[in-house]
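Researcher: Next entry in the queue.
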Amino acid sequence: MKKKIHLTILLCSRHDKWIAQCVEHDIAAQASSVEGVLYEIARTISAEIVVDCKHDREPLKGTPPAPDKFRELARNALKIENPRFPDFTLPSTLATRFEVQTEQELLLCTT
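Model: Structure for this entry, 111 residues:
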């Protein structure tokens, strides 16, 4: 089964750190740079998908949405055009009934 997952990633800068929060699923990461936080959120989301697939679960279906405060921040955020995301490719050795394809949207906090 082909599974297309849309991911909205909200980037916020706080106290010399970058925070990336997925809006559709409560998955987050932090790092000291934008490149670092994008790598970390990609790695974390990929790991969540791998665990779900290994347990024959629909990827990310059991992961709840981000808390309301992040969805509110996302509504007021700026969309970053043509973002450069790290590769979300899953391991080819992962035998699963799901063929996972992700599409990402990147937003920047304005507050």
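Model: The chain has one domain: 2-108.
Researcher: Noted, moving on.
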